[in-house]
Amino acid sequence: MTDNQSKSASLIGRAARDPRAARLVRHALNALCMLALPLALAPTAAFAKPPIDSEAALIAHGNYIVHRVGMCTDCHTPKDDHGMPIGAQDLQGAELHFTPDVPVPGFTNRSVRLAGLPAGYTEAQLATFLETGHTANGGMARPPMPAYRLNEHDARAVAAYLHSLN
Ligand code: HEC
């Protein structure tokens, strides 16, 4: 037995009887665990990297933004007589079923077709429009089209999704 081994053996022996020694042993074990934790986590960190953003993942994210966040369908999908969106005509452009209470300059009650990309837009131009509000020809869309300020990833995802549609 080395000196150190006999010391720790006697410390553990004392810890069984003496609460102060027990606390010391607990602290030592805690310190050991703190040291071991980063080592134990190191291999999982390699797997925790975000997945590569495949085209399919980008399109799925765009679908989510269009249908669940931006609610583009509220204005860009034709409605039936009960005001319900017509699934078979999703994002084909629509007549809006509402008008403003007060005069809104430029208000238009006709939205454009988005499926397959709006006319005159490349995917990159559409992404820029969704990030800045600037249309492909450098203007602004008329109300009630919102001037979205999506982040670059979300804007690219929406453009990729709309491009993937017919
Ligand atoms: C509140 C209704 C409304 C919502 C919600 C809406 N839009 Fe629109 N959008 C319109 C209208 C109306 C127009 C036509 C504007 C015009 O003619 O100037 C339009 C036009 C557009 C245009 C063409 C812009 C141009 O003038 O070049 C694009 C692109 C577009 N919308 C994309 C989207 C996307 C993508 C979403 C969802 C993230 C969305 N819109 C949500 C009403 C809406």
Verbal overview:
- By secondary structure, this protein is mainly α.
- The protein has two domains: 3-47, no CATH class; 55-164, Cytochrome Bc1 Complex, Chain D, domain 2, CATH 1.10.760.
- It has helices spanning 3-17, 19-47, 55-69, 73-76, 123-132, 152-164.
- Helix 1 crosses helix 2 (19-47).
- It is elongated and about 85 Å long.
- Heme C binds next to helix 4 and helix 5.
- Heme C binds at residues 66, 70-72, 74-76, 108, 111-112, 114, 118, 126, 129, 135-136, 141-142, 144-146, 148, 158.
CATH architecture of the largest domain: Orthogonal Bundle
**Oligomer designation:** single chain
Describe the largest sheet. Answer: none
* Secondary structural class: mainly alpha
- The share of residues in helices is 40-55%
Taken from the alpha-carbon principal axes, the silhouette is elongated
Number of strands: 0
What is the first-to-last residue Cα distance?
79 Å
Which value, in Å, is the CA radius of gyration? 31 Å
Highest-level CATH class of the largest domain:
Mainly Alpha
Strand content: under 5%
Number of domains: 2
Q: Could you tell me the CATH topology label of the largest domain.
A: Cytochrome Bc1 Complex, Chain D, domain 2
Q: Nutshell version of this structure?
A:
By secondary structure, this protein is an all-alpha fold. The protein has helices spanning 3-17, 19-47, 55-69, 73-76, 123-132, 152-164. Helix 1 packs across helix 2 (19-47), helix 3 (55-69) crosses helix 6 (152-164) and helix 5 (123-132) crosses helix 6 (152-164).
